[in-house]
Amino acid sequence: MPRKARNMPVRVDEVSNPATLQEALLFLKRYPEAVPWAGGTLLMTDSAAWPEGRGTAILDVHRIPELSSIHRTERYIEVGAAYSLSSILALPGSSILDPLTQAIGTIGNAAVRNLATLGGNIAARGRFMTSFPALSCLDASVELRDSAGVRWHGIHKLVGPGNQPSFPRGTLLTRVRLPVAKWDSIAIKSIGEKSFPHPDANAFCACARYDKGAISDIRIATAGRVLVRDRELELTLAGKHLPLTRRELVTFATELAALAYALSASRNLADRLEAYVTAFLARSPEYIS
Ligand SMILES: Cc1cc2nc3c(=O)[nH]c(=O)nc-3n(C[C@H](O)[C@H](O)[C@H](O)COP(=O)(O)OP(=O)(O)OC[C@H]3O[C@@H](n4cnc5c(N)ncnc54)[C@H](O)[C@@H]3O)c2cc1C
């Protein structure tokens, strides 16, 4: 019998191990509260990943071929949701997916990454996991399937009210589309002393592109209990020459920190985010080639 974190046993009423997507969707239609099981590395360590209540059905997604597929074009790489984190790191030229690959490299250890999947990292219910800020900055897309059909959405569709995670029940994440892009400057860090599985662990991602001594694109996100990202604020820096003035830098960092505080009510998160953003923006000129 699987066990929730803190040794709370889970009563499993039904298990399905389908070989086709169609079978999986039929099972989900019958048991909309079923828990998809990919690597199981989060389900075995985080009680928030399980639905409330006593009995549950488990849908093992390992044998579904579409979830392990990979497709590359010049503009993006599309990976099946059950692709393991270590397989993504092992893709030829995987650094083209930075900052995502850098974020994945910080998750667990090699043994965990061999089992853990990208889909499981994205579809976590209780909180955003380490890859989410990088996926937000990349503007990744997700393919979702349920009994009503199949549709592609931007990754932010999985962000609900209050910027909290809202992966829909009765839905399978089947593929993730990752745009390939070159960034001049990338920072990936965990925020604060808390690390997984602490509920206050937060991941930070910043990336920027420069052209002729000015910022041409900049994206900054942090995620844990909530996602903090403000595209409009990012756009205020587009075209600004480097180094930024003290005023530009402070205005940006304090506004993003204020948003973090409004969403999380955590002074600690807001203060640390402000410090990280300030450091990233102040160091940016070093990265101009
Ligand atoms: C020692 C250790 C350290 C860890 N460190 C980190 C860390 O630093 N950062 C971090 O982010 N995580 C960490 N984890 C947690 C975990 O390894 C990762 O989050 C991993 O990516 C989860 O993937 P999985 O395939 O194991 O997901 P699972 O545990 O199988 O599933 C996770 C959630 O996603 C859902 N799900 C899975 N696949 C699908 C799908 N295709 N469609 C719909 N829903 C789906 C499940 O129902 C569940 O709610 C750690 C785990 C361990 C054991």
Keywords:
289 residues, alpha+beta, Uridine Diphospho-n-acetylenolpyruvylglucosamine Reductase, domain 3, 5-stranded antiparallel beta sheet, 4-stranded antiparallel beta sheet, 25% strand, binds flavin-adenine dinucleotide
Structure write-up:
The strands form 3 sheets. Strands 4-5-8-6-7 form a 5-stranded antiparallel beta sheet. It has a 4-stranded antiparallel beta sheet with strand order 9-10-11-12, sandwiched between helices. It has helices at 21-30, 85-89, 100-104, 110-115, 118-122, 132-138, 231-235, 246-264, 267-283; strands at 11-16, 35-37, 55-60, 70-72, 76-80, 141-146, 149-154, 172-179, 185-191, 202-211, 214-223, 227-228. The longest helix has 19 residues, at 246-264. It has 3 domains: 5-59; 68-179, Uridine Diphospho-n-acetylenolpyruvylglucosamine Reductase, domain 3 (2-Layer Sandwich), CATH 3.30.465; 185-287, CO dehydrogenase flavoprotein, C-terminal domain (Enolase-like, domain 1), CATH 3.30.390.50. It is α+β, with helices and mostly antiparallel strands and 289 residues long. The protein contains 9 helices and 12 strands. Helix content is 27%, strand content 25%.
Sum this structure up briefly:
This protein is α+β, with helices and mostly antiparallel strands and 289 residues long.
Output the number of helix runs.
9
CATH class of the largest domain reads: Alpha Beta
User: What about the largest sheet?
Assistant: 5 strands, antiparallel
Overall domain count: 3
Gyration radius, to the nearest Å? 19 Å
Neighbour order of strands in the largest sheet? 4-5-8-6-7
Mean pLDDT: 92
Structural class: alpha+beta
Fraction of residues in H or I helices? 25-40%
* Uncertain residue segments: none
The helix-strand sequence is EHEEEEHHHHHEEEEEEEHHH
Q: What is bound: which ligands?
A: flavin-adenine dinucleotide
Number of strands: 12
Shape: globular
CATH architecture annotation of the largest domain: 2-Layer Sandwich
Proportion of residues in β-strands: 15-25%
| Cα end-to-end separation | 56 Å
CATH topology of the largest domain: Uridine Diphospho-n-acetylenolpyruvylglucosamine Reductase, domain 3
